[in-house]
Amino acid sequence: MTESVSKKQFVEDLTDQSDDFSRWYNEVVRKAQLADYAPVRGCMVIRPYGFGMWENMQAKLDARIKATGHQNAYFPMLIPESLLQLEADHVKGFAPECAWVTHGGHDVLEERLAIRPTSEAIIGHMYSRWIESYRDLPVLLNQWCNVMRWEKVTRLFLRTTEFLWQEGHTAHATAEDAQAETLRMLEVYRAFAEEDLAIPVHAGRKSEAEKFAGAEMTYSVEALMRDGKALQAGTSHNLGQHFAKVFDITYQDEAGARQHVWQTSWGVSTRLIGALVMVHGDDQGLQLPPRVAPIQAVVVPIWRKDEERAQVLEFVDRVRAASGGLRVHVDDRDQYTPGWKYNEYELRGVPVRLEVGPRDVAQSSVMSVRRLDRKKEPIALDRLATRLPELLDEVQRALFDRARTFREENTVRARTVEELEAHFEERRGFVALPWNDDPAVEARIKERTGATLRCVPAGLSEGNTPVALFARAY
Q1: Ramachandran area for residue 12 (φ above 0: left; ψ -120 to 50: alpha; else beta)
Q2: DSSP for 92-144?
């Protein structure tokens, strides 16, 4: 195989995570070709490899959402200002982030239109027209779309002016049904993060200070990145009857009386791609969970003599056929050496590499290499159809186990606020603190340490005392 004759350099070294995690993150996102900066400040272009990750994540989560009885719909991205102004708390919460359309062509619009920062207002307006009777309930809708929030400080995937997400919006006849829906979708997010993304999360309620504008209660799933900072990976809101009263969403109950509905909303976004990078990546680049990796296994043909080329590539075709429905990519480019390709696909986090050279052809096998730990294993061609899926499952589990171990090693329990403050003077990570919902204490912790209350998980209580998780966060 010939050396590269292009000016493209060999895969460049990355900044070590321990030297500058933020710089490492930005380098990985761009060098692995996940995304790039757009001409508009704070916007990004999601490149095919990054969008392939999002498509796989979307497919996995969409299936989970539909399995709970929800249907997909689509609502306009332009929202009349008068609709937003109906709900004061909601508008106040998003006012600094709203982008406005003021002109249509050369004409000044009679009313400003907000580019949706979220869709409670427009969906509430439509639900008021659609819902008439208890027989219309529950309404279980989800939409996949983009939103815009005029962020002052941005970072690719983690916080951008425009981003992609899904947002669910439901309406129910009773408060109990709405609360059950809120917790059900929180569990969907937990399972999706842990089972498909291999990211361990804590699921619990937010504090009053951290809840969604206009919600009765907000719940979230919180993950720990490898730099010790937390990331909110998804939220589920019990909206109560707040928006229903504002937008007059009522139904006639079985006794003939008019009642306001009870609502929820919930969502995750492309920031989960950033979470994948920061939870699983290492100094060599990405490490992608097989279930959402655009390429689950890459086949690298190896030959030194021209007469070996045809023989190796013919065998590679058999390898690809034996891989069944897996996402397998064959890199048979002549202009790059096998070593260059090894580094490229390690940078891009492909879970498994399959090497095929003349010796492998002679033995009717491939040499597999796990990105996780570079463990090698020869696999006979007649076993590949069963062994490769097993290997990918092993990598998926190992990534989750490693991330969970890291989280456990970087979680401490504090008995007092003073212990918590002392911890954040020297370290990051999660700190679990017995909690009585004191907003003054929460504000003090944030002011003195920069750490915020991430959530109050049900599973971390000490006897009858709830425990809150604090961390510095993205």
Answers
A1: beta
A2: HHHGGG-EEEEEETTEEEEEEEEEPS-SHHHHHHHHHHH--BGGG--EEEEEE
Task: Check residue 4 and give its pLDDT.
Answer: 40
Instruction: Provide φ and ψ at 454, rounded to 5°.
Output: -80, -50
- Residue 446 to residue 436: CA distance in whole angstroms: 16
* 456 is a domain residue: yes
DSSP β-bridge partners for residue 230: 224, 473
pLDDT one-digit tens code per residue, 30-45: 999 999 999 999 999 9
SS3 at position 85: helix
* CATH number of the domain bearing residue 435: 3.30.110.30
Which is nearest to 320 in space by CA: 362, 366, 280?
Answer: 366
429 is written with which tokens?
């990570």
| Helical (H) or strand (E) element with 234 | strand 230-240
pLDDT at residue 371 in the model:
98
pLDDT at 10: 43
Distance from C-alpha of 406 to C-alpha of 60, rounded to nearest angstrom: 25
Amino acid type, 54:
W
H-helix segments, 323-351: 338-347
Bridge pairing between strands 328-330 and 262-269: unpaired
Q: Is 23 helix (H, G, I), strand (E, B) or coil?
A: helix
Euclidean distance between CA atoms 316 and 330, whole angstroms: 8
Q: What are phi and psi of 208, to 5 degrees?
A: -60, -40
Same domain, yes or no: 62 and 89: yes
At residue 12, the pLDDT reads 63
- CATH label of the domain that carries residue 90: 3.30.930.10
Length reported for the chain: 474
> Would you say residue 103 lies in a domain?
yes
In degrees and rounded to multiples of 5, residue 346 shows phi and psi of: -70, -45
Cβ partners under 8 Å of residue 102, min gap 6: 108, 109, 112
Cβ atoms of 263 and 171 closer than 8 Å: yes
pLDDT tens figures, 72-86: 999 999 999 999 888
* Residue 392 to residue 15: CA distance in whole angstroms: 28
Question: Does 371 lie in the same domain as 243?
Answer: no
Q: Which residues, given as ranges, of the chain have pLDDT below 70?
A: 1-12
Cα 152 to Cα 149: distance, rounded to the nearest angstrom = 9
The encoded tokens of residue 467 equal 């425990």
**Is 10 contained in some domain?**
no
Evaluate whether 298 touches 344 at the Cβ level (below 8 Å).
no
* CA triple 254-256-260, angle to 5 deg: 85
Q: How far apart are CA 216 and CA 427, in angstroms?
A: 33
